[in-house]
From TrEMBL:
Family label: Belongs to the IlvD/Edd family.
Origin species: Schizopora paradoxa
Domain Dihydroxy-acid/6-phosphogluconate dehydratase C-terminal: 386-589
Keywords from the UniProt entry: Iron, Iron-sulfur, Lyase, Metal-binding
Region span, Disordered: 1-19
Entry's Gene Ontology molecular function annotations: hydro-lyase activity; iron-sulfur cluster binding; metal ion binding
Domain spans labelled Dihydroxy-acid/6-phosphogluconate dehydratase N-terminal: 52-372
UniProt-recorded name of the protein: Dehydratase family protein 2
Record's keyword annotation contains Iron: yes
Residue ranges, compositional bias (Low complexity): 1-10
Matching PROSITE patterns: ILVD_EDD_1
Amino acid sequence: GGVASSSEGAEVTRRETGLRSRLTSYGDDEFSLFLRKAFIKGAGYSDDALDRPIIGIIDTSSGFNPCHGNVPALVKAVERGVQLSGALPIPFPTISLHESFAHPTSMYLRNLMSIDTEEMIKAQPMDGVVLIGGCDKTVPAQLMGAISANIPCISLVTGPMLTGSHQGRRVGACTDCRSYWKDYRAGLIDIEEIWRVNDELVPTVGTCGVMGTASTMACLVEALGLMPLGSATPPATSAARIRVAENTGKLAVKISVENEARKCITPQDVLTRESFTNAIVVLHALGGSTNAVVHLLAIAGRVPNLNPPLTLDDIDSIGRKTPLLVDLKPSGSGYMEDFHRAGGVPALLQQLAPLSILHLEALTITGRTLGDELANFAGKFDYPQEIIRTPSSPLFPASALVVLRGNLAPDGCVLKQSAVGNPALLKHSGPAVVFTSAADMAERLDSPELASKLTADSVLVLQGIGPVGHPGMPEAGMIPIPKALAKQGVTDMLRISDGRMSGTAGGAVILHVAPEAAVGGPLALVQDGDIIGVDVDERKIWVGMVGGDAEIERRKVKWDDEQRKRIKPRVRGYEGLYKSTVLQADQGADFDWLRANDSE
Ligand code: FES
Ligand code: MG
């Protein structure tokens, strides 16, 4: 007796089976189930297969996405896990985003991917879903969509790539991409060498091999409780990664089928203030990517009734209590394969647990608490290793990431102080050198006219690369050191923008200034020669103009006036939607209409 032969209609069928996949949305439920079954049988399924719970598997493989190059193997292993648990796996595609192949920037498309994910989960009959992704924007986009769809889901990441080797040195994407390029710009290495290293920087499929955004987000999903402990770090090419996939398939069935002993578990069941606190602790302890700040705010914005809502101040206040323990690039020296061998996130949580900053009582997707899950790893990491430090000998004492505020950034901005090259810049003031756009910067950065004006004390300001400005808030915030200064041996300068930087980058780079220049934030008003000051201990950032506050006010009136006079042509398509509804960085740069309704 197939489900479609139920004479009582779909709602009854759903009540009988407890399965969301039997829900229909048309008047004649019985006929629509009959029709659906007829069509899927075109793929060769039997009634025995089709009468089981259905687990969707999101396949984000693409020829343009080497970070997801192992997805076909992972889909197969998830399918095996689902089948071993008696359910039917059905893979389906969504769009795929790779950092280097998403013009103008992958961030511009993150919200689109979240919409694709949410709507395809909602549209298709499935009882639970496995989200396979890895590259920077994928994991947050999938979580945002799946939280809003709110059916049982588990993240499965593709895992980090291995390291390559150049002249006997380990290299990996993409902190080393940047350091070799910096050396090339400074004239320290030649064109032949820069091309030789190019072959080695990305030696396998998988996500960037340092603590960049992809690795950070993978680890945060473990901390959030939406992926089993130990699932973030196995390399993309390892047998362990395949076993994680099989296990994910099994768990997906378990959480998606309701019975007397067990209710289904959805992401909104798991995500609370406490789980976000755990994720933020792990973010600081990893020395993780600044991009994770934007993504966490966007993810939290999808959870209804998060009380109080997550803000930038939570990022800063939790950071003050959290030491940086994981010695990976760009804050430290190791690679993801080292972190995995040292025990990964569970080993890190073991170090953090005695500090009483984690909420071990937080529920996870397994139905057990984070503390219960962590207990499974007791004694497993009692071997010498140097990658995960103890709280008594941290890599950085606290506040790897800080949030600064002041008249230049009333709604905040972010700095990864653990990756600052020259600590003197943490308390610094100097004259602004302003670029009005990424194009302006590219054109003038190395020009002789600019070289004559610059010193190592100058503060480089880049306007117009925020969510609305560019659009999509590109990773252009790490303004290169101007060649003239680089050749004099200057390796770090204070740099400020409303954009982002890659999680694999470092330097005294202040990011995510809100409100951004394109919507008239104070950043838009800064001109060459204004004095910009930063005091990280005080969490302050300010701009001083000759003429003081009155001058700021005068420039603002002028800016508003020019805006009013400017003819704004209709912008069609996704770009129009993006520019008119994207929120500022301090709200995660989600679309305003995608955030959760409270009291949902
Ligand atoms: Fe995909 Fe770095 S480019 S994770
Ligand atoms: Mg990146």
